[in-house]
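Our consortium's second objective concerns turning raw sequence data into structural hypotheses that experimental partners can test. To show how far this objective has progressed, the report includes one record in full. It was chosen at random from the queue rather than selected for favorable results. The single chain below, 90 residues long, was entered without modification.
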Amino acid sequence: MSAPEQDLIDQSLLFEVIENQLADGEPAFVKATLLRLCMTGHSREDALELMACALAPEMVAVIEQEQKFNLARYQQHLELLPQTPWLGEE
Protein backbone atom coordinates (compact mmCIF):
# COMPACT_ATOMS: atom_id res chain seq x y z
CA MET A 1 0.00 0.00 0.00
CA SER A 2 1.40 3.42 -0.88
CA ALA A 3 2.00 6.09 1.74
CA PRO A 4 -1.04 8.21 0.72
CA GLU A 5 -3.30 5.17 0.98
CA GLN A 6 -1.92 4.38 4.41
CA ASP A 7 -2.62 7.93 5.55
CA LEU A 8 -6.15 7.92 4.21
CA ILE A 9 -7.27 4.44 5.18
CA ASP A 10 -6.48 3.07 8.61
CA GLN A 11 -5.61 -0.63 8.57
CA SER A 12 -8.11 -1.31 11.34
CA LEU A 13 -10.88 0.04 9.10
CA LEU A 14 -9.85 -2.35 6.34
CA PHE A 15 -9.86 -5.28 8.76
CA GLU A 16 -13.27 -4.23 10.08
CA VAL A 17 -14.74 -4.13 6.57
CA ILE A 18 -13.29 -7.55 5.73
CA GLU A 19 -14.50 -9.07 9.02
CA ASN A 20 -17.99 -7.66 8.32
CA GLN A 21 -17.93 -9.16 4.83
CA LEU A 22 -16.91 -12.51 6.29
CA ALA A 23 -19.63 -12.35 8.96
CA ASP A 24 -22.28 -11.41 6.38
CA GLY A 25 -21.07 -13.98 3.87
CA GLU A 26 -21.17 -11.29 1.20
CA PRO A 27 -19.51 -11.12 -1.14
CA ALA A 28 -18.95 -14.88 -1.05
CA PHE A 29 -15.56 -14.61 -2.75
CA VAL A 30 -14.14 -12.89 0.37
CA LYS A 31 -14.60 -16.03 2.48
CA ALA A 32 -13.37 -18.19 -0.39
CA THR A 33 -10.21 -16.08 -0.56
CA LEU A 34 -9.59 -16.37 3.17
CA LEU A 35 -10.01 -20.14 3.01
CA ARG A 36 -7.74 -20.43 -0.02
CA LEU A 37 -4.99 -18.37 1.57
CA CYS A 38 -5.20 -20.29 4.85
CA MET A 39 -5.16 -23.62 3.02
CA THR A 40 -1.99 -22.59 1.19
CA GLY A 41 -0.07 -21.94 4.39
CA HIS A 42 -0.92 -18.38 5.38
CA SER A 43 -2.03 -17.66 8.92
CA ARG A 44 -5.43 -16.03 9.29
CA GLU A 45 -3.73 -12.78 10.27
CA ASP A 46 -1.43 -12.84 7.24
CA ALA A 47 -4.36 -13.67 4.98
CA LEU A 48 -6.35 -10.73 6.34
CA GLU A 49 -3.38 -8.43 5.79
CA LEU A 50 -3.13 -9.57 2.18
CA MET A 51 -6.86 -9.13 1.74
CA ALA A 52 -6.59 -5.61 3.17
CA CYS A 53 -4.10 -4.85 0.38
CA ALA A 54 -6.78 -5.86 -2.12
CA LEU A 55 -9.45 -3.78 -0.40
CA ALA A 56 -7.39 -0.62 0.12
CA PRO A 57 -7.45 0.66 -3.50
CA GLU A 58 -11.23 0.33 -3.56
CA MET A 59 -11.62 2.22 -0.29
CA VAL A 60 -9.32 4.98 -1.56
CA ALA A 61 -11.37 5.24 -4.76
CA VAL A 62 -14.58 5.56 -2.74
CA ILE A 63 -13.34 7.96 -0.08
CA GLU A 64 -10.79 10.09 -1.89
CA GLN A 65 -11.97 9.97 -5.48
CA GLU A 66 -15.70 9.67 -4.72
CA GLN A 67 -16.05 6.70 -7.08
CA LYS A 68 -18.37 3.75 -6.71
CA PHE A 69 -16.91 0.64 -5.13
CA ASN A 70 -15.62 -1.57 -7.95
CA LEU A 71 -16.64 -5.03 -6.81
CA ALA A 72 -15.26 -6.74 -9.92
CA ARG A 73 -11.82 -5.17 -9.47
CA TYR A 74 -11.84 -6.07 -5.76
CA GLN A 75 -12.60 -9.69 -6.69
CA GLN A 76 -9.81 -9.69 -9.28
CA HIS A 77 -7.34 -8.40 -6.70
CA LEU A 78 -8.42 -11.05 -4.20
CA GLU A 79 -8.02 -13.76 -6.85
CA LEU A 80 -4.42 -12.67 -7.49
CA LEU A 81 -3.40 -12.96 -3.84
CA PRO A 82 -0.84 -13.60 -2.49
CA GLN A 83 0.57 -11.67 -5.45
CA THR A 84 -0.13 -7.91 -5.32
CA PRO A 85 0.88 -6.52 -8.74
CA TRP A 86 -1.48 -3.52 -8.40
CA LEU A 87 0.87 -2.21 -5.69
CA GLY A 88 3.70 -1.93 -8.22
CA GLU A 89 6.11 -3.77 -5.93
CA GLU A 90 6.46 -6.98 -7.94
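The partners drew two points from this record. The CA atoms of residues 5 and 60 lie 7 Å apart. Helices lie at 3-8, 11-24, 28-39, 44-63, 71-80. Both points have been shared with the crystallography group to help prioritize constructs.
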